[in-house]
Amino acid sequence: MINIAIDGYSSCGKSTLAKALARTLGYIYIDTGAMYRAVALYALDHGFIHPDGTIDQEGLINALPSLHIDFKYSNDTGRSDVFLNGVSVESRIRNMQIAELASRISQIRAVRNKLQQLQRGIAHKKGVVMDGRDIGTVIMPDAELKIFMTADPEIRALRRYEELKAAGKETSLEEVRNNQVKRDYEDTHRAEDPLRKASDALVLDNSALSPDEQLKLALDWVKKKSKQVAEV
Ligand code: DC
């Protein structure tokens, strides 16, 4: 077994590929973005977002010790759901308000430290697929396979718009596009662990690839990397 780190821009299909890889290989899948989203939801629910939208950083940092995040496998959905203080928050974190807030909250060093400690604890074992923004560079720098995902921004926006529409969430393509541009900028320009391609990551541009084609390509990479590991 190896470890697989997947990083990339928002709405690139990272979690679709990560989930498919984990299912096929029998690996554990950890969606680190969901952890930042859960902290964003906590901040919103506990009054750490000021009426003007800014974050009460001090209040949130002081509350971090009472915030517990974990994953539990759900037989209903066939995936691991993220739990915040014992309650599944999956249905409340998959929207643009939380995505935008998560991107800003992820810039707070103390928040990153807390979540990264959890992520490193999980990555300690082999047979883990983890996706996010700093997995190949910070969390699993020794992962045997690192994938950096990218796709044409217009295609990404359209995919996410269709996804939100199918889930019954009211939005416009324009709004989805603006949210994506802002998040891409913030995630790549922040001071704390910005999104970067690890020097040894393989680039997967999925603008013209179906989910099955991406899975096939990634499984080929897994096979090659596993062989290299076995030969050492
Ligand atoms: O992958 P996502 O869209 O669910 O992530 C939400 C936000 O969380 C993203 O805009 C940046 C932040 N994030 C991060 O800083 N580091 C990670 N490893 C994962 C997500």
Element layout with pairings:
Layout (H helix, E strand, L loop, with lengths): L2 E6 L5 H12 L2 E4 H14 L11 H7 L5 E6 L4 E6 L2 E2 L1 H4 L2 H10 L3 H15 L4 E5 L2 H5 L5 E6 L2 H14 L6 H17 L12 E4 L5 H21 L1
Parallel strand pairs: 1-6, 1-7, 2-6, 7-8
Antiparallel strand pairs: 3-4, 4-5
Helix pairs in contact: 1-10, 2-5, 2-6, 5-9, 8-9
The structure holds 2'-deoxycytidine-5'-monophosphate.
Order of helices and strands: EHEHHEEEHHHEHEHHEH
Find the CATH superfamily.
Answer: P-loop containing nucleotide triphosphate hydrolases
* Domain tally: 1
Write down the CATH class. Answer: Alpha Beta
- Reading side by side through the largest sheet, how are the strands ordered? 2-6-1-7-8
Count all strands and give the number.
8
Structure commentary:
This protein is α/β, with parallel strands linked by helices and 232 residues long. The protein has one domain: P-loop containing nucleotide triphosphate hydrolases (Rossmann fold, 3-Layer(aba) Sandwich). It contains 10 helices and 8 strands. It has a 5-stranded parallel sheet with strand order 2-6-1-7-8, with helices on both faces. A 3-stranded antiparallel sheet has the order 3-4-5, covered by helices on one side. Helix 2 crosses helix 5, helix 5 runs parallel beside helix 9 and helix 8 packs across helix 9. The two termini are 14 Å apart. It binds 2'-deoxycytidine-5'-monophosphate (DC). The site of 2'-deoxycytidine-5'-monophosphate has 15 residues, from helix 2, helix 5 and helix 9.
